[in-house]
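[job 4417] fold queue: 2 targets
>>> target A
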Amino acid sequence: MNLLLQTVATLLILPFGLLSLAAWRRMEGMRWSRPFAAWFPTGVCFAAVGAYSAAHALAAPYVQRMDPGSAAYGTAVRWLQAGNVGRECGVIMAALVMGAMLAVPAASVGRVARHGTAPILLAIVAGTVLTARYGDMELRPYITLLAVMYCIAVVVLLAVLLAGVARDGLDQLLWLALAAYAVKETFSVSLFTILAWWRVQVEPAAWVAFYWVNGLAMVVMVMLAFRRLQHARAGNAVPALFERLHAVRGGNPGRMLSDG
């Protein structure tokens, strides 16, 4: 049951990334402006992470059938562990790219988004290779490393979400999708920290809950990306979360960033 739930949750990452890129491509002249350009690094990151995760999920059943004492098994486990770290490095880098897009002047948003693709992909590869070169890790150091990576991702994502509200830099649907992902990551931090530091024996039911949270978060994200694609196809602009309120407070209720 756990393996099935894990596989389903994992395989939903790629559709979210592809839908994000498809929605971004349909935005025509608004692609490289706030609050729409952030869909591009989001799509790049989750398409890459999703494809990597899908390969990981498909390989896991075969690894489980290997002889635990064999060299092939040790190598496979090492690279699977490294893949988890590498993918989280990619998520952190994508969040940093979005943070940079929110920090720069509006005219530079597109340039930052374009140049952000390489760092995201490089972070995934570098995180994987460097972790694999470290060698075999015992369970506790490995889980500790994951907890630290998840924690960094949560902090950066929360900063991006806050800046997105303050600067109207993320449209409503992307903001909600990233918030759902941040909730999933927060749950992961809590669970892995408990496992790493308190050495609690987690019951199978807890892992079921963990994978259900992951799966539900990804379902919500896929639905939001699909909805954004529908808006893009219809030529509708989606405003930032509090853009209307900011326009009213700024004394210009008729002007919206999402109006172009």
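>>> target B
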Amino acid sequence: MRHEPAEGVGADRRPGAVGDRPEARLERAKAFGATHVVNSRTTDPVEAVRDITGGGADHVFDFVGARPVTAQAMQMLGKGGGLYLIGVAAMDAGLEVSSMVALTNSQRVQGVYMGSSNLKRDIPFYASMYLQGRMNLDDLVSKEIGPTEIESGYEALKDGSTARVVVTDFSV
């Protein structure tokens, strides 16, 4: 997936894929620079990613954290590829990894907590990119709410057309 903020660090060099179900999310991924999208309801996402990338992806990001999705993500990896676990999984969720496949293909799995960010470095960098017009954050926010609207904000997230709900009004 080529994503606008990632272009500044060379992530646009190779095509990638986004697998998701709600059609609105797939369209949003395209709007933010995805070179390919895969609807996992109608297409085998593992086969599609391996076809798109010519044998497997260099990087796969699991934002879901569900055991079947994580297993598919592992199968999408190419030689030397890395799987990044971002989605919060159930405490008993796990991933079966063939040691031989991981070893012979030099694959790795890495947890990413809170974006694995260095906040002192990253927040000013992102703010600078935004202020320069190089990072579109505005279109990521679908709805702005106040603290008394938290429940309706969570409900809005269940709809595939809502990207992010952000608390911006702190007056009570």
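[job 4417] complete. Note on B: The helical segments are 4-7, 23-31, 45-53, 67-75, 99-104, 119-131, 150-157.
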